[in-house]
Amino acid sequence: MDYLIELFMAIFGATSQGLAWAILALGVYITFRILNFADLSCEGTFALGGSISAILVVSLQWNPFLSLIVATAAGMIAGSVTGFLHTKLKIPAILSGILTMIGLYSVNLRIMGKANTSLIGQSTIISIIKGFLPEAEQLGIKDSTLQTGVSLVVGLVFTLVVIIILYWYFGTETGSCIRATGNNPAMVRAQGVNTDKMTILGLVISNGFIALSGALVTQSQGYADVGMGIGSIVIGLASIVIGEVLYRKAKNFARKLLAIVIGSIVYRIIIAVVLQMGMDTNDMKLLTAIVVAIALSVPVISKNKVFINIIRFISKLALWIKSRVFVRKEGK
Amino acid sequence: MLKMTNIYKTFNANTVNEKLVLNGLSLDLNEGDFVTVIGGNGAGKSTMLNMIAGVHMPDKGSVLLDDINITNLPEYKRAKYLGRVFQDPMMGTAANMEIQENLALAFRRGKKRGLSWGITKEEKHFYVEKLRTLDLGLETRLSTKVGLLSGGQRQALTLLMATLQQPKLLLLDEHTAALDPKTANKVLALTDQIVTTNALTALMVTHNMKNAIQYGNRLIMMYEGKIIFDVAGEEKKNLHVSDLLAKFESVSGGEFANDRMILS
Protein backbone atom coordinates (compact mmCIF):
# COMPACT_ATOMS: atom_id res chain seq x y z
CA MET A 1 0.00 0.00 0.00
CA ASP A 2 2.77 2.40 0.92
CA TYR A 3 4.50 1.56 -2.29
CA LEU A 4 1.34 2.37 -4.25
CA ILE A 5 0.97 5.73 -2.52
CA GLU A 6 4.61 6.49 -3.22
CA LEU A 7 4.14 5.59 -6.88
CA PHE A 8 0.99 7.66 -7.07
CA MET A 9 2.77 10.65 -5.56
CA ALA A 10 5.64 10.21 -8.04
CA ILE A 11 3.19 10.19 -10.94
CA PHE A 12 1.35 13.16 -9.46
CA GLY A 13 4.61 15.13 -9.29
CA ALA A 14 5.60 13.98 -12.78
CA THR A 15 2.28 15.15 -14.22
CA SER A 16 2.73 18.55 -12.64
CA GLN A 17 6.25 18.81 -14.06
CA GLY A 18 5.13 17.48 -17.42
CA LEU A 19 2.53 20.23 -17.77
CA ALA A 20 5.04 23.01 -17.11
CA TRP A 21 7.43 21.48 -19.65
CA ALA A 22 4.62 20.80 -22.14
CA ILE A 23 4.69 24.45 -23.24
CA LEU A 24 8.36 23.97 -24.16
CA ALA A 25 7.38 20.94 -26.22
CA LEU A 26 4.64 22.94 -27.96
CA GLY A 27 7.20 25.64 -28.76
CA VAL A 28 9.61 23.07 -30.18
CA TYR A 29 6.71 21.59 -32.20
CA ILE A 30 6.16 24.96 -33.92
CA THR A 31 9.70 25.08 -35.24
CA PHE A 32 10.50 21.40 -35.64
CA ARG A 33 7.26 20.13 -37.17
CA ILE A 34 5.35 23.15 -38.48
CA LEU A 35 8.20 25.33 -39.70
CA ASN A 36 10.57 22.42 -40.47
CA PHE A 37 13.38 24.32 -38.73
CA ALA A 38 15.56 22.52 -36.15
CA ASP A 39 15.85 25.45 -33.77
CA LEU A 40 18.50 24.97 -31.09
CA SER A 41 18.10 28.46 -29.66
CA CYS A 42 15.44 26.92 -27.42
CA GLU A 43 18.19 25.70 -25.06
CA GLY A 44 19.11 29.32 -24.43
CA THR A 45 15.63 30.83 -24.44
CA PHE A 46 14.33 28.32 -21.90
CA ALA A 47 16.99 29.43 -19.41
CA LEU A 48 16.47 33.05 -20.49
CA GLY A 49 12.81 32.86 -19.46
CA GLY A 50 13.78 31.28 -16.15
CA SER A 51 16.55 33.79 -15.40
CA ILE A 52 14.40 36.82 -16.17
CA SER A 53 11.46 35.58 -14.16
CA ALA A 54 13.70 34.77 -11.18
CA ILE A 55 15.67 38.00 -11.18
CA LEU A 56 12.59 40.21 -11.57
CA VAL A 57 10.98 38.56 -8.56
CA VAL A 58 14.13 38.44 -6.38
CA SER A 59 15.93 41.69 -7.16
CA LEU A 60 13.12 43.98 -8.27
CA GLN A 61 10.31 42.45 -6.18
CA TRP A 62 8.06 42.30 -9.24
CA ASN A 63 4.78 40.51 -9.33
CA PRO A 64 5.68 36.99 -10.55
CA PHE A 65 2.80 37.01 -13.05
CA LEU A 66 4.20 40.16 -14.62
CA SER A 67 7.62 38.49 -14.80
CA LEU A 68 6.10 35.80 -17.03
CA ILE A 69 5.09 38.42 -19.59
CA VAL A 70 8.56 39.97 -19.63
CA ALA A 71 10.14 36.51 -19.91
CA THR A 72 7.90 35.68 -22.88
CA ALA A 73 8.74 38.95 -24.60
CA ALA A 74 12.48 38.34 -24.09
CA GLY A 75 12.09 34.87 -25.59
CA MET A 76 10.39 36.39 -28.62
CA ILE A 77 13.28 38.79 -29.13
CA ALA A 78 15.74 35.89 -28.89
CA GLY A 79 13.69 34.02 -31.50
CA SER A 80 13.82 37.00 -33.84
CA VAL A 81 17.62 37.04 -33.53
CA THR A 82 17.78 33.43 -34.73
CA GLY A 83 15.36 34.30 -37.53
CA PHE A 84 17.44 37.30 -38.56
CA LEU A 85 20.65 35.25 -38.63
CA HIS A 86 19.00 32.60 -40.79
CA THR A 87 16.87 34.58 -43.21
CA LYS A 88 18.75 37.82 -43.67
CA LEU A 89 22.33 36.70 -43.10
CA LYS A 90 21.75 33.27 -44.72
CA ILE A 91 23.37 31.32 -41.88
CA PRO A 92 22.21 27.68 -41.88
CA ALA A 93 19.27 26.96 -39.56
CA ILE A 94 21.10 24.75 -37.06
CA LEU A 95 24.03 27.15 -36.78
CA SER A 96 21.76 30.18 -36.32
CA GLY A 97 20.13 28.42 -33.39
CA ILE A 98 23.46 27.39 -31.90
CA LEU A 99 24.79 30.95 -32.14
CA THR A 100 21.76 32.34 -30.32
CA MET A 101 21.93 29.57 -27.73
CA ILE A 102 25.62 30.17 -26.96
CA GLY A 103 25.16 33.93 -26.90
CA LEU A 104 22.25 33.59 -24.51
CA TYR A 105 24.38 31.62 -22.04
CA SER A 106 26.40 34.78 -21.38
CA VAL A 107 23.28 36.93 -21.47
CA ASN A 108 21.64 34.74 -18.84
CA LEU A 109 24.73 34.94 -16.60
CA ARG A 110 24.66 38.72 -17.00
CA ILE A 111 20.98 38.85 -16.13
CA MET A 112 21.34 36.86 -12.94
CA GLY A 113 24.89 37.98 -12.14
CA LYS A 114 25.64 34.41 -11.07
CA ALA A 115 24.94 30.87 -12.20
CA ASN A 116 21.68 30.44 -10.32
CA THR A 117 19.03 32.33 -8.42
CA SER A 118 16.89 30.87 -5.66
CA LEU A 119 13.30 31.94 -5.11
CA ILE A 120 13.15 30.58 -1.57
CA GLY A 121 11.28 33.00 0.69
CA GLN A 122 10.07 35.04 -2.30
CA SER A 123 6.53 35.29 -3.46
CA THR A 124 6.13 33.02 -6.48
CA ILE A 125 3.11 32.18 -8.58
CA ILE A 126 2.69 29.05 -6.50
CA SER A 127 2.97 30.83 -3.16
CA ILE A 128 0.52 33.55 -4.22
CA ILE A 129 -2.12 31.02 -5.24
CA LYS A 130 -1.43 28.97 -2.13
CA GLY A 131 -2.18 32.13 -0.16
CA PHE A 132 -5.78 31.98 -1.33
CA LEU A 133 -6.15 28.37 -0.22
CA PRO A 134 -6.48 26.98 3.29
CA GLU A 135 -3.34 25.66 4.98
CA ALA A 136 -2.19 22.22 3.98
CA GLU A 137 -2.58 20.96 7.55
CA GLN A 138 -6.23 21.95 7.58
CA LEU A 139 -6.75 19.92 4.39
CA GLY A 140 -4.98 17.00 6.00
CA ILE A 141 -2.21 16.76 3.39
CA LYS A 142 1.50 17.49 3.31
CA ASP A 143 2.60 20.99 2.34
CA SER A 144 4.69 19.60 -0.54
CA THR A 145 1.60 17.82 -1.90
CA LEU A 146 -0.36 21.07 -1.90
CA GLN A 147 2.59 22.75 -3.62
CA THR A 148 2.60 20.09 -6.34
CA GLY A 149 -1.17 20.31 -6.70
CA VAL A 150 -1.06 24.05 -7.23
CA SER A 151 1.78 23.67 -9.76
CA LEU A 152 -0.30 21.10 -11.58
CA VAL A 153 -3.32 23.39 -11.85
CA VAL A 154 -1.17 26.35 -12.91
CA GLY A 155 0.54 24.20 -15.55
CA LEU A 156 -2.80 22.90 -16.77
CA VAL A 157 -4.30 26.39 -17.12
CA PHE A 158 -1.27 27.80 -18.95
CA THR A 159 -1.00 24.77 -21.24
CA LEU A 160 -4.67 24.98 -22.18
CA VAL A 161 -4.38 28.70 -22.90
CA VAL A 162 -1.32 28.10 -25.08
CA ILE A 163 -3.11 25.32 -27.00
CA ILE A 164 -6.11 27.57 -27.62
CA ILE A 165 -3.85 30.39 -28.85
CA LEU A 166 -1.92 28.04 -31.15
CA TYR A 167 -5.07 26.41 -32.50
CA TRP A 168 -6.55 29.79 -33.30
CA TYR A 169 -3.39 31.35 -34.69
CA PHE A 170 -2.45 28.53 -37.05
CA GLY A 171 -5.98 28.61 -38.46
CA THR A 172 -5.72 32.28 -39.42
CA GLU A 173 -4.48 33.61 -42.75
CA THR A 174 -1.03 34.42 -41.36
CA GLY A 175 -0.82 31.14 -39.45
CA SER A 176 -1.66 29.19 -42.62
CA CYS A 177 1.19 30.96 -44.37
CA ILE A 178 3.61 29.88 -41.63
CA ARG A 179 2.43 26.28 -41.99
CA ALA A 180 2.79 26.44 -45.76
CA THR A 181 6.25 27.99 -45.44
CA GLY A 182 7.42 24.96 -43.48
CA ASN A 183 5.89 22.74 -46.13
CA ASN A 184 6.85 24.35 -49.45
CA PRO A 185 8.48 27.80 -49.36
CA ALA A 186 8.71 28.13 -53.17
CA MET A 187 4.94 27.72 -53.46
CA VAL A 188 4.28 30.24 -50.71
CA ARG A 189 6.49 32.84 -52.36
CA ALA A 190 4.64 32.26 -55.63
CA GLN A 191 1.44 33.12 -53.73
CA GLY A 192 2.92 36.46 -52.72
CA VAL A 193 4.01 35.69 -49.18
CA ASN A 194 7.32 36.86 -47.73
CA THR A 195 8.71 33.55 -46.47
CA ASP A 196 11.52 35.23 -44.52
CA LYS A 197 8.94 37.09 -42.50
CA MET A 198 6.97 33.89 -41.86
CA THR A 199 10.09 32.03 -40.70
CA ILE A 200 10.97 34.84 -38.30
CA LEU A 201 7.38 35.00 -37.05
CA GLY A 202 7.34 31.26 -36.38
CA LEU A 203 10.62 31.46 -34.46
CA VAL A 204 9.36 34.44 -32.45
CA ILE A 205 6.19 32.62 -31.37
CA SER A 206 8.04 29.40 -30.63
CA ASN A 207 10.73 31.01 -28.51
CA GLY A 208 8.19 33.19 -26.72
CA PHE A 209 6.41 30.08 -25.49
CA ILE A 210 9.68 28.32 -24.68
CA ALA A 211 10.76 31.24 -22.49
CA LEU A 212 7.32 31.22 -20.85
CA SER A 213 7.81 27.54 -20.12
CA GLY A 214 11.24 28.27 -18.59
CA ALA A 215 9.70 30.96 -16.40
CA LEU A 216 6.91 28.65 -15.24
CA VAL A 217 9.35 25.85 -14.46
CA THR A 218 11.46 28.32 -12.46
CA GLN A 219 8.42 29.50 -10.56
CA SER A 220 7.29 26.02 -9.62
CA GLN A 221 10.69 24.51 -8.84
CA GLY A 222 11.77 27.62 -6.93
CA TYR A 223 15.05 28.43 -8.65
CA ALA A 224 16.57 29.37 -11.98
CA ASP A 225 19.83 27.94 -13.21
CA VAL A 226 21.91 29.04 -16.17
CA GLY A 227 22.18 25.39 -17.25
CA MET A 228 18.48 24.60 -16.95
CA GLY A 229 18.00 24.73 -20.72
CA ILE A 230 20.65 22.13 -21.52
CA GLY A 231 18.99 19.24 -23.28
CA SER A 232 15.65 21.02 -23.49
CA ILE A 233 15.48 20.54 -27.28
CA VAL A 234 15.79 16.79 -26.79
CA ILE A 235 13.19 16.80 -24.02
CA GLY A 236 10.86 18.76 -26.31
CA LEU A 237 11.46 16.31 -29.15
CA ALA A 238 10.95 13.34 -26.84
CA SER A 239 7.57 14.75 -25.79
CA ILE A 240 6.56 15.33 -29.43
CA VAL A 241 7.65 11.88 -30.51
CA ILE A 242 6.00 10.09 -27.57
CA GLY A 243 2.79 12.05 -28.20
CA GLU A 244 2.85 11.19 -31.89
CA VAL A 245 3.40 7.51 -31.18
CA LEU A 246 0.58 7.41 -28.63
CA TYR A 247 -1.86 9.31 -30.85
CA ARG A 248 -0.83 8.16 -34.29
CA LYS A 249 -4.30 8.75 -35.68
CA ALA A 250 -4.71 12.34 -34.44
CA LYS A 251 -5.65 14.33 -37.56
CA ASN A 252 -7.18 17.40 -35.97
CA PHE A 253 -4.63 20.08 -35.08
CA ALA A 254 -5.98 20.56 -31.55
CA ARG A 255 -5.67 16.81 -30.91
CA LYS A 256 -2.11 16.84 -32.20
CA LEU A 257 -1.26 19.60 -29.73
CA LEU A 258 -2.98 17.70 -26.92
CA ALA A 259 -0.99 14.60 -27.87
CA ILE A 260 2.22 16.57 -27.30
CA VAL A 261 1.06 17.61 -23.83
CA ILE A 262 0.28 13.97 -23.03
CA GLY A 263 3.69 13.08 -24.48
CA SER A 264 5.36 15.56 -22.15
CA ILE A 265 3.54 14.10 -19.13
CA VAL A 266 4.30 10.51 -20.16
CA TYR A 267 7.95 11.44 -20.60
CA ARG A 268 8.08 12.79 -17.05
CA ILE A 269 6.33 9.68 -15.73
CA ILE A 270 8.82 7.43 -17.51
CA ILE A 271 11.65 9.43 -15.95
CA ALA A 272 10.05 9.24 -12.52
CA VAL A 273 9.58 5.49 -12.79
CA VAL A 274 13.10 4.91 -14.04
CA LEU A 275 14.52 7.04 -11.24
CA GLN A 276 12.45 5.14 -8.68
CA MET A 277 13.93 1.95 -10.07
CA GLY A 278 17.31 3.33 -9.04
CA MET A 279 18.78 4.79 -12.20
CA ASP A 280 21.50 7.39 -11.81
CA THR A 281 20.18 10.92 -12.53
CA ASN A 282 23.35 11.66 -14.49
CA ASP A 283 22.41 9.01 -17.06
CA MET A 284 19.03 10.61 -17.74
CA LYS A 285 20.12 12.70 -20.73
CA LEU A 286 21.76 9.73 -22.42
CA LEU A 287 18.59 7.70 -21.96
CA THR A 288 16.48 10.54 -23.39
CA ALA A 289 18.80 10.92 -26.37
CA ILE A 290 18.61 7.20 -27.13
CA VAL A 291 14.81 7.18 -26.84
CA VAL A 292 14.50 10.15 -29.23
CA ALA A 293 17.02 8.70 -31.69
CA ILE A 294 15.13 5.40 -31.83
CA ALA A 295 11.72 7.04 -32.12
CA LEU A 296 12.83 9.41 -34.90
CA SER A 297 14.39 6.57 -36.86
CA VAL A 298 11.26 4.40 -36.83
CA PRO A 299 10.16 5.52 -40.34
CA VAL A 300 13.57 4.57 -41.76
CA ILE A 301 13.95 1.37 -39.82
CA SER A 302 10.49 0.14 -40.76
CA LYS A 303 11.38 0.47 -44.47
CA ASN A 304 14.92 -0.89 -44.42
CA LYS A 305 15.11 -4.61 -45.23
CA VAL A 306 18.27 -5.23 -43.23
CA PHE A 307 16.72 -3.66 -40.14
CA ILE A 308 13.47 -5.55 -40.65
CA ASN A 309 15.37 -8.83 -40.90
CA ILE A 310 17.41 -8.05 -37.79
CA ILE A 311 14.21 -7.26 -35.89
CA ARG A 312 12.58 -10.46 -37.22
CA PHE A 313 15.61 -12.46 -36.14
CA ILE A 314 15.58 -10.92 -32.68
CA SER A 315 11.86 -11.55 -32.25
CA LYS A 316 12.27 -15.17 -33.43
CA LEU A 317 15.15 -15.59 -31.02
CA ALA A 318 13.04 -14.14 -28.25
CA LEU A 319 10.19 -16.53 -29.07
CA TRP A 320 12.60 -19.45 -29.12
CA ILE A 321 14.09 -18.52 -25.76
CA LYS A 322 10.60 -18.02 -24.39
CA SER A 323 9.47 -21.44 -25.59
CA ARG A 324 12.56 -23.01 -24.00
CA VAL A 325 11.93 -21.30 -20.70
CA PHE A 326 8.29 -22.33 -20.68
CA VAL A 327 9.12 -25.92 -21.53
CA ARG A 328 11.53 -26.02 -18.63
CA LYS A 329 8.99 -24.54 -16.25
CA GLU A 330 6.40 -27.06 -17.32
CA GLY A 331 9.00 -29.79 -16.90
CA LYS A 332 9.45 -28.79 -13.29
CA MET B 1 2.11 44.42 -71.54
CA LEU B 2 5.32 42.53 -70.68
CA LYS B 3 8.43 44.22 -71.92
CA MET B 4 11.81 42.60 -71.36
CA THR B 5 14.69 44.65 -72.72
CA ASN B 6 18.28 43.56 -73.20
CA ILE B 7 18.42 41.05 -70.38
CA TYR B 8 21.80 39.55 -69.51
CA LYS B 9 22.33 36.87 -66.92
CA THR B 10 25.47 34.92 -66.07
CA PHE B 11 25.44 32.12 -63.52
CA ASN B 12 28.53 31.35 -61.43
CA ALA B 13 30.34 34.42 -62.72
CA ASN B 14 34.15 34.34 -62.42
CA THR B 15 34.32 30.60 -61.79
CA VAL B 16 35.09 27.65 -64.04
CA ASN B 17 31.37 26.94 -64.19
CA GLU B 18 30.59 30.39 -65.54
CA LYS B 19 27.65 30.24 -67.92
CA LEU B 20 26.05 33.03 -69.89
CA VAL B 21 22.38 32.00 -69.88
CA LEU B 22 20.61 35.07 -71.18
CA ASN B 23 22.47 37.04 -73.78
CA GLY B 24 20.70 40.30 -74.52
CA LEU B 25 17.21 38.83 -74.51
CA SER B 26 14.32 41.12 -75.48
CA LEU B 27 10.67 40.17 -75.54
CA ASP B 28 7.46 42.12 -75.97
CA LEU B 29 4.13 40.52 -75.13
CA ASN B 30 0.77 41.90 -76.13
CA GLU B 31 -2.34 41.71 -73.99
CA GLY B 32 -4.01 38.32 -74.52
CA ASP B 33 -1.02 36.65 -76.14
CA PHE B 34 -0.69 32.92 -75.48
CA VAL B 35 2.93 32.32 -76.35
CA THR B 36 4.62 28.93 -76.52
CA VAL B 37 8.37 28.86 -75.96
CA ILE B 38 10.64 26.16 -77.36
CA GLY B 39 14.38 25.69 -77.39
CA GLY B 40 17.09 23.15 -76.57
CA ASN B 41 18.46 22.38 -73.15
CA GLY B 42 20.25 25.38 -71.71
CA ALA B 43 18.70 27.80 -74.19
CA GLY B 44 17.52 29.95 -71.28
CA LYS B 45 13.77 29.23 -71.37
CA SER B 46 13.34 28.51 -67.68
CA THR B 47 15.75 31.29 -66.75
CA MET B 48 13.66 33.73 -68.75
CA LEU B 49 10.54 32.69 -66.82
CA ASN B 50 12.42 32.84 -63.51
CA MET B 51 13.60 36.32 -64.46
CA ILE B 52 9.98 37.41 -64.90
CA ALA B 53 8.93 35.69 -61.67
CA GLY B 54 11.78 37.20 -59.66
CA VAL B 55 13.52 33.96 -58.70
CA HIS B 56 16.65 35.36 -60.36
CA MET B 57 17.47 39.01 -60.91
CA PRO B 58 19.05 40.08 -64.23
CA ASP B 59 22.64 41.34 -64.34
CA LYS B 60 21.60 43.92 -66.91
CA GLY B 61 18.38 44.94 -68.59
CA SER B 62 14.86 45.69 -67.45
CA VAL B 63 11.54 43.91 -67.00
CA LEU B 64 8.35 45.96 -67.24
CA LEU B 65 4.89 44.58 -66.61
CA ASP B 66 2.06 46.90 -67.59
CA ASP B 67 4.53 49.79 -67.34
CA ILE B 68 5.45 48.81 -63.77
CA ASN B 69 9.19 48.29 -63.42
CA ILE B 70 9.56 44.91 -61.69
CA THR B 71 13.22 44.34 -62.58
CA ASN B 72 14.41 44.23 -58.97
CA LEU B 73 11.16 43.62 -57.14
CA PRO B 74 11.40 40.62 -54.75
CA GLU B 75 9.65 37.44 -55.82
CA TYR B 76 6.87 37.63 -53.23
CA LYS B 77 6.01 41.23 -54.09
CA ARG B 78 5.53 40.66 -57.81
CA ALA B 79 3.62 37.42 -57.19
CA LYS B 80 0.39 39.42 -57.13
CA TYR B 81 0.72 40.02 -60.87
CA LEU B 82 1.74 36.48 -61.79
CA GLY B 83 0.28 33.00 -61.86
CA ARG B 84 2.87 30.23 -61.95
CA VAL B 85 2.89 26.50 -62.62
CA PHE B 86 6.17 24.66 -62.26
CA GLN B 87 7.69 21.67 -63.99
CA ASP B 88 7.77 19.61 -60.79
CA PRO B 89 4.19 18.77 -59.68
CA MET B 90 5.44 18.86 -56.07
CA MET B 91 6.54 22.50 -56.38
CA GLY B 92 3.21 24.24 -56.83
CA THR B 93 1.28 22.96 -53.83
CA ALA B 94 1.85 22.33 -50.12
CA ALA B 95 1.65 18.54 -49.70
CA ASN B 96 0.82 18.47 -45.98
CA MET B 97 -2.08 20.87 -46.35
CA GLU B 98 -5.62 20.26 -47.52
CA ILE B 99 -6.89 21.06 -51.02
CA GLN B 100 -9.03 23.88 -49.64
CA GLU B 101 -6.14 25.29 -47.58
CA ASN B 102 -3.97 25.41 -50.70
CA LEU B 103 -6.76 27.13 -52.62
CA ALA B 104 -7.27 29.59 -49.78
CA LEU B 105 -3.57 30.52 -49.87
CA ALA B 106 -3.82 31.11 -53.62
CA PHE B 107 -7.11 32.99 -53.30
CA ARG B 108 -5.31 35.57 -51.14
CA ARG B 109 -2.49 36.16 -53.59
CA GLY B 110 -1.73 39.87 -53.69
CA LYS B 111 -4.05 40.61 -50.78
CA LYS B 112 -3.21 41.52 -47.24
CA ARG B 113 -3.21 38.54 -44.88
CA GLY B 114 -4.25 39.21 -41.34
CA LEU B 115 -5.64 37.41 -38.34
CA SER B 116 -9.03 36.50 -39.73
CA TRP B 117 -9.80 32.82 -40.23
CA GLY B 118 -7.87 31.17 -43.06
CA ILE B 119 -10.92 29.90 -44.99
CA THR B 120 -14.45 31.28 -44.92
CA LYS B 121 -17.64 29.33 -45.62
CA GLU B 122 -18.56 31.26 -48.77
CA GLU B 123 -15.11 30.57 -50.16
CA LYS B 124 -15.64 26.83 -49.89
CA HIS B 125 -18.66 26.98 -52.22
CA PHE B 126 -16.59 28.98 -54.67
CA TYR B 127 -13.79 26.38 -54.52
CA VAL B 128 -16.26 23.55 -55.12
CA GLU B 129 -17.51 25.33 -58.25
CA LYS B 130 -13.98 25.94 -59.47
CA LEU B 131 -12.83 22.37 -58.76
CA ARG B 132 -15.81 21.04 -60.68
CA THR B 133 -14.51 22.74 -63.84
CA LEU B 134 -11.38 20.56 -63.59
CA ASP B 135 -13.58 17.47 -63.95
CA LEU B 136 -11.28 15.37 -61.77
CA GLY B 137 -13.69 14.67 -58.93
CA LEU B 138 -11.73 16.91 -56.56
CA GLU B 139 -14.82 18.94 -55.65
CA THR B 140 -15.85 16.29 -53.11
CA ARG B 141 -12.39 16.07 -51.54
CA LEU B 142 -11.88 19.60 -50.19
CA SER B 143 -10.25 18.40 -46.98
CA THR B 144 -7.98 15.80 -48.59
CA LYS B 145 -4.25 16.40 -48.12
CA VAL B 146 -2.72 17.45 -51.44
CA GLY B 147 0.12 14.95 -50.90
CA LEU B 148 -2.37 12.15 -51.60
CA LEU B 149 -3.15 13.39 -55.13
CA SER B 150 -1.47 12.17 -58.31
CA GLY B 151 1.00 14.32 -60.22
CA GLY B 152 -1.60 15.20 -62.84
CA GLN B 153 -4.17 16.15 -60.22
CA ARG B 154 -1.60 18.31 -58.46
CA GLN B 155 -0.68 20.10 -61.68
CA ALA B 156 -4.35 20.72 -62.45
CA LEU B 157 -4.83 22.07 -58.94
CA THR B 158 -1.76 24.28 -59.28
CA LEU B 159 -3.15 25.59 -62.55
CA LEU B 160 -6.42 26.43 -60.84
CA MET B 161 -4.55 28.09 -57.97
CA ALA B 162 -2.50 30.17 -60.40
CA THR B 163 -5.65 31.53 -62.00
CA LEU B 164 -7.94 31.78 -58.96
CA GLN B 165 -6.97 35.42 -58.76
CA GLN B 166 -6.78 36.62 -62.36
CA PRO B 167 -3.04 37.10 -63.02
CA LYS B 168 -1.71 39.71 -65.43
CA LEU B 169 0.56 37.00 -66.78
CA LEU B 170 0.51 33.21 -66.45
CA LEU B 171 3.90 31.48 -66.46
CA LEU B 172 3.91 27.78 -67.33
CA ASP B 173 7.35 26.22 -67.06
CA GLU B 174 7.15 22.82 -68.82
CA HIS B 175 4.26 22.06 -66.52
CA THR B 176 3.38 18.79 -68.30
CA ALA B 177 6.93 17.45 -68.71
CA ALA B 178 6.76 15.26 -65.60
CA LEU B 179 3.39 13.69 -66.48
CA ASP B 180 2.56 10.62 -68.53
CA PRO B 181 1.42 11.42 -72.12
CA LYS B 182 -2.29 10.92 -71.45
CA THR B 183 -2.34 13.07 -68.33
CA ALA B 184 -0.10 15.63 -70.03
CA ASN B 185 -2.64 16.02 -72.83
CA LYS B 186 -5.46 16.40 -70.36
CA VAL B 187 -3.60 19.09 -68.40
CA LEU B 188 -2.70 20.85 -71.65
CA ALA B 189 -6.31 20.88 -72.81
CA LEU B 190 -7.29 22.23 -69.41
CA THR B 191 -4.60 24.90 -69.68
CA ASP B 192 -5.93 25.96 -73.07
CA GLN B 193 -9.48 26.08 -71.72
CA ILE B 194 -8.51 28.19 -68.69
CA VAL B 195 -6.36 30.57 -70.71
CA THR B 196 -9.05 31.06 -73.35
CA THR B 197 -12.06 31.45 -71.08
CA ASN B 198 -10.25 33.94 -68.83
CA ALA B 199 -8.58 35.70 -71.78
CA LEU B 200 -5.21 35.39 -70.01
CA THR B 201 -1.81 36.42 -71.25
CA ALA B 202 0.39 33.36 -70.93
CA LEU B 203 3.95 32.14 -71.55
CA MET B 204 4.23 28.38 -71.88
CA VAL B 205 7.60 26.65 -72.10
CA THR B 206 7.42 23.22 -73.69
CA HIS B 207 9.71 20.58 -75.09
CA ASN B 208 7.02 19.24 -77.35
CA MET B 209 7.05 20.99 -80.74
CA LYS B 210 3.66 19.62 -81.75
CA ASN B 211 2.10 21.15 -78.66
CA ALA B 212 3.96 24.37 -79.26
CA ILE B 213 2.35 24.65 -82.68
CA GLN B 214 -1.06 23.37 -81.58
CA TYR B 215 -1.57 25.76 -78.68
CA GLY B 216 -1.37 29.52 -78.44
CA ASN B 217 -1.32 32.31 -80.98
CA ARG B 218 2.40 32.93 -81.01
CA LEU B 219 5.55 30.83 -80.87
CA ILE B 220 9.08 31.81 -79.93
CA MET B 221 12.21 29.76 -80.26
CA MET B 222 15.24 30.36 -78.05
CA TYR B 223 18.87 29.54 -78.65
CA GLU B 224 21.86 30.46 -76.49
CA GLY B 225 20.00 33.01 -74.43
CA LYS B 226 18.30 34.82 -77.27
CA ILE B 227 15.07 34.64 -79.20
CA ILE B 228 15.93 33.47 -82.70
CA PHE B 229 12.48 32.93 -84.15
CA ASP B 230 9.16 34.61 -83.39
CA VAL B 231 5.98 33.83 -85.31
CA ALA B 232 2.33 34.62 -84.71
CA GLY B 233 -1.10 34.30 -86.21
CA GLU B 234 -1.70 32.48 -89.49
CA GLU B 235 1.97 31.91 -90.12
CA LYS B 236 2.27 30.06 -86.83
CA LYS B 237 -0.82 27.95 -87.47
CA ASN B 238 0.65 26.71 -90.73
CA LEU B 239 3.96 25.65 -89.16
CA HIS B 240 5.05 22.04 -89.13
CA VAL B 241 7.47 20.28 -86.80
CA SER B 242 9.79 19.84 -89.78
CA ASP B 243 9.84 23.62 -90.33
CA LEU B 244 10.88 24.17 -86.74
CA LEU B 245 13.60 21.51 -86.94
CA ALA B 246 14.93 23.02 -90.14
CA LYS B 247 14.92 26.44 -88.56
CA PHE B 248 16.90 25.19 -85.60
CA GLU B 249 19.38 23.29 -87.66
CA SER B 250 20.09 26.37 -89.72
CA VAL B 251 21.07 28.41 -86.66
CA SER B 252 22.71 25.75 -84.56
CA GLY B 253 24.23 23.46 -87.16
CA GLY B 254 22.12 20.46 -86.18
CA GLU B 255 22.99 20.71 -82.54
CA PHE B 256 19.43 21.34 -81.50
CA ALA B 257 17.90 18.21 -82.90
CA ASN B 258 18.31 16.13 -79.78
CA ASP B 259 16.35 12.91 -79.29
CA ARG B 260 13.94 14.35 -76.80
CA MET B 261 12.54 16.85 -79.27
CA ILE B 262 12.31 14.54 -82.26
CA LEU B 263 10.57 11.82 -80.30
CA SER B 264 8.07 14.09 -78.66
Automatic annotation (TrEMBL), chain A:
Organism: Mobilitalea sibirica
Stored InterPro entries: ABC_transp_permease (IPR001851)
Keywords from the UniProt entry: Cell membrane, Membrane, Transmembrane, Transmembrane helix
Membrane topology value: Multi-pass membrane protein
Localisation per UniProt entry: Cell membrane
Transmembrane segments: 6-32, 44-62, 68-86, 93-111, 149-170, 198-217, 223-245, 257-278, 284-302
MF terms in GO: transmembrane transporter activity
Pfam families in the cross-refs: BPD_transp_2
Principal subcellular localisation of the protein: membrane
Protein's name according to its UniProt entry: ABC transporter permease
One annotated Gene Ontology cellular component of this protein: plasma membrane
From TrEMBL, chain B:
GO cellular component assignments: plasma membrane
GO MF annotation list: ATP binding; ATP hydrolysis activity
Subcellular location: Cell membrane
Keywords on record: ATP-binding, Cell membrane, Membrane, Nucleotide-binding, Transport
Record-linked SMART domains: AAA
Listed Gene3D superfamilies: P-loop containing nucleotide triphosphate hydrolases
Pfam families per UniProt: ABC_tran
Annotated ranges, domain ABC transporter: 2-249
Taxonomic superkingdom: Bacteria
Membrane topology classification: Peripheral membrane protein
Protein name stated in the entry: ABC transporter ATP-binding protein
